[in-house]
């Protein structure tokens, strides 16, 4: 009877409308969208930090012009 995700999605939307009322649905959708955006921004920030750390760790050590290290 409920073989696909579409069936469950329709049931969830109808249940949400019945439970919260039609006036609260836009507010809930807005809050959910903002939360997803914050999560994505946080994930991108962590990815950038990891790449910067990996680049710093893989950078070759430099030797002074004299050819000897201290």
Automatic annotation (TrEMBL):
Record localization: Membrane
Keyword Transport: yes
A Pfam family reported for this protein in Swiss-Prot or TrEMBL: TatA_B_E
GO biological process: protein transport
InterPro entries: TatA/B/E
A single cellular component GO annotation: membrane
Entry keyword set: Membrane, Protein transport, Translocation, Transmembrane, Transmembrane helix, Transport
Bilayer topology term: Single-pass membrane protein
Claim: Protein transport is one of the keywords in the record: yes
Subcellular location, principal: membrane
Descriptive protein name: Twin-arginine translocation protein, TatA/E family subunit
Lineage, highest ranks first: unclassified sequences, metagenomes, ecological metagenomes
């Amino acid at each position: 009877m409920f073989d696909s995700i579409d069936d469950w999605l329709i049931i969830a939307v109808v249940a949400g409308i019945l439970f919260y009322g039609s006036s609260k649905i836009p507010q809930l959708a807005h809050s959910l969208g903002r939360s997803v955006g914050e999560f994505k921004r946080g994930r991108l920030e962590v990815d950038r930090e990891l790449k910067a750390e990996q680049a710093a760790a893989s950078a070759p050590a430099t030797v002074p012009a004299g050819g000897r290290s201290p």
